[in-house]
Each structure stands twice: as C-alpha cells, then as structure tokens.
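From: lab user (bench 3)
To: helpdesk
Subject: output format question, protein + glutamic acid

Hello, I'm new to running complex predictions and I'm not sure whether the block I got back is the full result or only part of it. Here's what I submitted:
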Amino acid sequence: MKTRVRFAPSPTGPLHIGGVRTALFSYLFAQLNKGVFVLRIEDTDQGRYVNGSEEYIQKALEWCGLTPDEGPYNGGMYGPYRQSQRKEIYRLHIEKLIEKGSAYYAFDKTEALNDERKKAEINGKTFRYGAQNRLNFKNSLTLRDEDIKEKLKDDYVVRLKVNPGEMISVYDEIRGNITLNSDLLDDKILMKSDGMPTYHFANVVDDKLMEISCVIRGEEWLPSLPIHKVIYNAFGWKTPQFMHLPLILKPKGKGKLSKRDGDKEGFPVFPLSWGASSVGFMESGFLPEGFINYLALLGWNNGTEKEIFSLDELKQSFRISGIQKGGARFDFEKAKWINHQHLKRCSSKKLVNIPMVKKRLKGLDPSKHIALIDLLKERLLTLNDLHAEMNWINETQPYDEKVTLKLKSKNADRILEGILKIVGNCNEVDALKDLLIIWAEENEINIGVMMQCFRIALVGELSGPDLFEICKFLNKDIILVRISKAISYFKQKT
Ligand code: GLU
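Helpdesk reply: Thanks, we reran it on our side. This is the complete output you should expect:
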C-alpha cells in the first residue's frame, strides 16, 4: 500500500508551531516511505473561518520547505482538497450511514438540549445524548415516518448511533492500544443543521477517500480517536495508522505552549508574522533550516547525541521509534542555538540574498557583502543580531566606560598615538598586526593592552569580530579619524 500522509489544518488563524511540527513529521514520514504528502484544508466550521489563514498556511509551508505533493494549490487525483468544496461527498456518505442504521436524524431544539444539560449538571452529572437516553428525544428513532418527513423540511442534524456496551479499541503507533467503553461516548453530531459535516465526520470520510495510510496529528486529538473508530466501523472501513505527537509544553510550568507565553516572554510561536501584533520565526531572524531542525527535536531524536540536521538529513534519519510519548518543553534559547549552527553552515552567498540581510547591507559596497557576512555569521544567533554586529561599520559606539577607565590608567592616549603613526604609514592591512606587535614589544607595551586600545578606538567595546578583519572593511581614513577621536577622548578623560 502506498504511503499517503496528510496535513489537515483548519484555517482558523495562523499556524502555531505545533501545527508546523505536525506538518514536518507528516512530510518526513511520507518521505521516509517514498510516499505522498497531502495538504487538506478543513474549513467546514464557517463560524471559525479566519480570512487570510489559508494563504498563511500555504506561505508558512513554503518557507519551511514542506511542499505538499497534493493539495488545493497543486491539485491531485483525490481533490477537491478543501472540505467546503466536498459537501456533496459528505451528503452521500451520511445517507449511507443512515441507510445502514448507524446514524439518525435528530430534531431537538438547542433550548431543549440546554435544559437537559442543566438538569444533569444540577445532579452533578455530564449530559450525554446517547444509547441510554436517545429514545427520550425528538429524532428519527422516536418519531413516526410522516412526522420525520415533515421535520426534515426544517432544521435537523444527523447523529452517529453509538452502540452501547462495546469496547472500542484503537492502536496508536506511539502510545499503543487505546481502549474505551462506548458507553462513555456521545451520539456525536456528524452533520450540522447548515448541511456541513462536523470535523469528525469529514475527517474520517476524507482520510478514507483520499486513501490516507497514516494520520499524524497532535495529542490534543487523541480524545477524538474512539469516535473516529466508531465511524470507521460503521462504514465497515479499515482504519489507517495513527500517530499522536506529544504536546509542546510551556518553557516553564505546566501546560501547552500558547501564544500568550510567547507574548509574555518575547518569543515567536508562529513561523511567519501574523498581522502587526505577532512576529514570526522568520522575522525574528531564523533560517527555515534552523526553525525546522528545532521543531524536529520537539518530541523526536535519532537515538544519538546528534542535534543538528538539515532537512535532507532529517528525511534520512526520521523514524517513528524516535518519537517520544511525553510532552516536549519549548526552549527558545535552544532554538536560537540551533539556528546559530545553521547560520554558520549556510553559505554567505545564500545569506546575502535573504531580504532582511539585504536590507541591513544596503548602502555598503556590494563587493564586500559576502566577505562581511563570512566574518559575521559565526557570531549570529539570529539574523536580527546582524544589526548590532554591524554597528562598528557606521560609527563607534559610545565607548565602554568600564574599559576606557582601565585603559586610561595604562596611558591609552600615548599608546594610540603610536598606533596612529603606524597605521598612517602602513599601506598593507595584512602587515598591520605584525607591525603593531613589533612596535609594542620594542616599546615595552603590553600587547593585550595595545590591542584593547585599538579595538576601543575602532569599535567602542571589546567584543566584536577579529580586529584586523574589521580593518579590511574600514577605509584607512576612517581608521585614522577614529583613532584620533579616541586620543582626544582619553586626553580629556579624568
Ligand atoms: N483540522 C484539524 C486541525 O485543525 C485536523 C486534526 C487532524 O489532523 O485530524 O488540526
């Protein structure tokens, strides 16, 4: 049987990183088995539809490099891939279930059901519309044929008829067998009064018709699994494989990672920005490779200490046995570290073409772009760090007070006067370091102190890339001006 794995998001807002991880694992599993990765848009809940979210999903997958083989944008043999365009298919399937006696029409008014719910609550019970009480309600099991015909002209829903007292057992590849007594299940609504199927029904029908061989989704869908199994059984269909991925947990404390955690602690939870309020991983300076690599580690490892994987390496290493059951804690510092590893690996030629890098390099001599990125990329956790790392190009920062105080006591002004002369006479940047060292030794000046003085004059602080590499990016005139400025500063400093 051909491996077919689907990613089935609902367009109810931007894709949370949990959703992207589901897409990633589905994609990897399809790749591992030389199968097909399908994108299906589950948009049957019109009330929750959010404009722009479908385009967002498409763009996010594209940025991550998780291109579907089939879906609403590139088509395929199993379309349409948007559930709102499959209404007729669901209608035909619901009729089949009704004919078989596995589903029935229900005409109860919302208010009547709310009253029942309240009554149950008062008695400390949970209201359940099912085998134990379905004969007390207005439905096609209790009404006469003529009444049913009449009622079908108005609003109605279709419910699943769950048999009482059966043990429902489903196998999850990560969690093993999951068994539940059917008495704990509701006669779930399969078709709503607007003629749209519910998530459960459309999801099962589509997985079957699209010949999905493996369903990969987040653990939050696990409670739906027994109901899905009942629907599969009602049709007499075999179930696909199931894999429910562990939750992504908050960085601290209990519970699932939410957008609020990100807002509070200043990290993104979406791949791309969403409106003005939410910055994504891309805008936070992540490479898609870094982002994807970090997501892969949220709940999976390859059984070794290896943590840095390209997408190609992930395709080769991914195995279900490496997926953990327990929740995976989100750690933004780790995400940045992983991104840093990918920045180091990435060719500077590729990096200079990323819009955010291009923007920062604007105004600088294009022939120096690649060399500059070669110099700086080792120092970046995210591309956003480029901003601060390039400050020295345009200006010296306000000098680091602590350092200048120390250097003042070591006669920084006199040392810099010496450096000024040597730089002034030197026409070969590559020779400068040796010239300065020889001069310092001859004059019994501590080499470390001399270098610090020079660095403060050029950069304003002690951190930054190699000093003599920096010299290659600054014109000699600028270097001389900065040294003179620093000499005046040290002379005036008290
Ligand atoms: N439409 C569901 C969601 O929004 C899909 C769940 C599933 O994969 O079955 O996540």
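A quick orientation on your result: The mean pLDDT is 95. Let us know if anything else is unclear.
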